[in-house]
Write a structure and sequence with these properties.
Chain B: Pfam families: Fer2, Fer2_2. Chain B: This is Isoquinoline 1-oxidoreductase, alpha subunit. Chain B: Keywords: 2Fe-2S, Iron, Iron-sulfur, Metal-binding, Oxidoreductase. Chain B: One of its GO terms (molecular function) is 2 iron, 2 sulfur cluster binding. Chain B: It comes from Maribacter orientalis. The structure holds 2 protein chains of 2 kinds. Chain A has 3 domains: 219 residues, Aldehyde Oxidoreductase, domain 4 (2-Layer Sandwich), CATH 3.30.365.10; 150 residues, Aldehyde Oxidoreductase, domain 4 (2-Layer Sandwich), CATH 3.30.365; 320 residues, Aldehyde Oxidoreductase, domain 4. Chain A is 30% helix and 25% strand. Chain A is built from 22 helices and 32 strands. In chain A, the strands form 8 sheets. Chain A has a 7-stranded mixed beta sheet, with helices on both faces. In chain A, helix 17 packs parallel to helix 21. The radius of gyration of chain A is 28 Å and the shape is globular. By secondary structure, chain B is α+β, with helices and mostly antiparallel strands. Chain B folds into 2 domains: 77 residues, Roll (Ubiquitin-like (UB roll)), CATH 3.10.20.30; 71 residues, DNA polymerase, domain 1 (Orthogonal Bundle). Chain B is built from 5 helices and 5 strands. Chain B has a 5-stranded mixed beta sheet, sandwiched between helices. The N and C termini of chain B lie far apart (51 Å). The mean pLDDT of chain B is 96.
Chain lengths: 728, 159
Amino acid sequence: MKNTSTKTISPMGRRQFLKSSGGVALFITASGLLPNILSCTDSKGVERQLTKHDVTAWVRITEDGQITIYNPAAEMGQGSMTSLPLVFAEEMDADWSKVHVEFSPQEADIYGSPGWQPGTKLMFTVGSRTTNSYYSVMRKAGAQARYVLLHSAAAHWQVPLTELSTGPSEVIHEKSDKKIGYGALVAYLAMPETLPDFSETGLKDPKDFRLIGSQIPRTEIPEKVDGSALFAMDLRLPDMVFGVLERGALHGATPTLTNEEDILAMEGVLKVVSFDYAIGVVANTLEAALSAKKALAIQWGDAQAKGFNSQEIYPTYAKMASAPEKGKTVNELGDVDRAWRTAAKTYEADFKNDYVYHAQMEPLNAIVQVAQDGQSAEVWVGSQQGPDTKLGIPGLLGIPHEAVNVHLQYLGGGFGRRSMNDFVLECGSLAQAMSPQPVKLVWTREDDVTYGCFRPLTLQRLKVSTDAQGTLTGFSHCVVGDGGNLVASGARNDHYAIPNQWVEWREASHGVRLKHWRSVGHGPNKFAIEAMLDEVAHDQGVDPIALRRKLMVNATRALATLEKVAEISDWNAPLPEGRAKGVAFVEHGSLGTGVCEISVDRTSGTIKVHRFWIALDAGVVIQPDNVKAQMEGGVIMGISSVLKEQITVVDGQVQQRNYNDYQLLRMQEVPDSIETVILPSAEHPEGVGETATPMVAGAITNAFLRLTGKRLRHLPFTPERVLAVLNS
Amino acid sequence: MIMATYSLNINGTSHEVDVAPGTSLLWVLREHLGLTGTKYGCGIAQCGTCTIHVDGNPVRACILQVDTMAKGQQIKTIEGLSEKGDHPVQQAWITAQAPQCGYCQSGQIMQAAALLETNPNPTREEIKSYMNGVLCRCGTYLRILKAIEMAKEQTSKTT
């Protein structure tokens, strides 16, 4: 895979992509009705077909039996480069050892999965939706490809199609004891008159799966260990120049550059480009661009965030939570006010969380090339894609959607940050100014931190009522913070049988940039919910697992994860002195319950997580080992954010700059083990990327309560905060 | 700013580059020589993503200036670690399915390879301590540990 660079970086439209594919491709029209089988070596034939039909290629087969399957989703470490093609290969009955995977073109109406509105399509690798939304799409397309092969063999052998079956990459006619490999069949490919829809029937019975659910190594790992995997940051184009921007630590502040002439006189500097919120510099080398960035003399104006101090806002939020006017209703069930009136006991607590930053290891970057006439553009980027797969470039340049070609690259981490196009648009503006030269825009780590888009700071007021038997009768959750669904997601309790529930969001606004951060509102909200449940259990002297078991009476699948994790963590076993276990449940598409075992250094205030266990129900699991990797990574990111990570804002200025003052969890701080059990299921696959992370805060605070009798209610649990709680 | 020509010994080959004195070795490797397996993560030697070997020692390329590296030192990047990506550490990385996004893994692998060069039989605590300077946001640390322990066994078998 070392020699992919020229292919990746050469401008290639969809037509060129198809033309250059080589071999024979099975093209299935966008309508899904008719396949077109094209010899890609016959470029005129391809061109004719392309002008007639809007075609899509999911797979390419060559005479030697090599199969290329196209992945429509971003690969940011979550494994889409393997899981989606694997689903296709399963239904096609392809020999996986002959399969090679490439990214599909970025065209949502062809390669999209069902979008948020009925009838729409979307290429957007967010919300853990990839496997969930593409599972049926890939199965159907794979089954159609297999049908074409069956049809072709039937025609070739002059036998009824119904007498044929397939094995790995071969069509079999048992009656005559004949077999033909998919590669050998290429010469005889024939197009059926109609193509079955396969939406309901005709797909494999899951018990016949030979790829889905087995241990399949990820396709892109070899190139990620020899250094040849290409991220957008790694691409180099002929005549490429380098762009950087200086953005303010006060988000949204307007810059005035006072030394433009000096900057333009600097060695290698080609252009200064002004933005509403930044000054851009383009130079012929990256080091020249960075030197010029350092030399910029900028006067910054004011912005909304001026005067805002993040760590002093909580009393204001608490007052907002106490105000008589309700906020926006997120969920309402029964009548919590009646629950309060009839309660034997009520509990109330405020939970808080500071801002956190994505910290993906590859700083934001992109390469854009705008044609001389300004009428077309090429974009190379690691993106979680978007509602518009052209990432806003058509609008920026005022050119049609089809005039922009996006070459998706591997993402050096996404976590939600790369679901935003701000950096792509910045690069587009620089490229427009430098047309037709390609511009590589690089964010420094300092840019990435200071001009980050954070998970919002919130305060959450929870209130619970119990009856005389200690049963939970009411549960209300008031989220105060900036960002709408960014703070409100995950505040519902659909798996807990509590008859009266109320969730509301009260809006604050500070002008600090915000964005989805892995698991979004689930992080803070599941923390508050799960911690609150354990505070009740603690007060009642009830075991936290027993309390949840009762609440999950109507949620069979959730309950199974609770029981399984209690079993694998040996929940009731005696622990060494100074250790305690805590539990938390999370639904985020998939359902999972996690247990951690912690200790606390009472001198330093440092919490150590020793072990973590998860029981997960994710429906059908495509790649079990990869799902476990997602649990491991999710837990590590969870521990990192819960114990260490904190963005603070003083007078509107983001205070952190780099990994020296925004600390992530390091090797010496990891648990000894993270053990995941995947519960067997035949249900439709659910996302797994965001289920583990939001378990961690609740599990840790609950273990801490059982260990010390004290309550940690403010994320992150820094040593200072832990000491303050221990000494309270 | 006056350009200068520097001769660098990288992966056993001599490379000449014309850059300004003081230019970071990382930019020279990546943008001038196209050795992009070495990644930029922080620029201040906090993340270890740009870890390479200089005379066998793991160092952070981002804080090395090109002028100090053109004195005959043997520089090794991920591209030069093995001919076919089959160094015992790389093989173990594949077996353990260690990478997720993959961006930090060149640095992790170079740091791990240096560890096993100097200490072929490290304890788990020694591995953790030696690897502590290389960050992974995807959280692959436990698989990295597993991979190093597998590579260690493999190395001790073959030596």
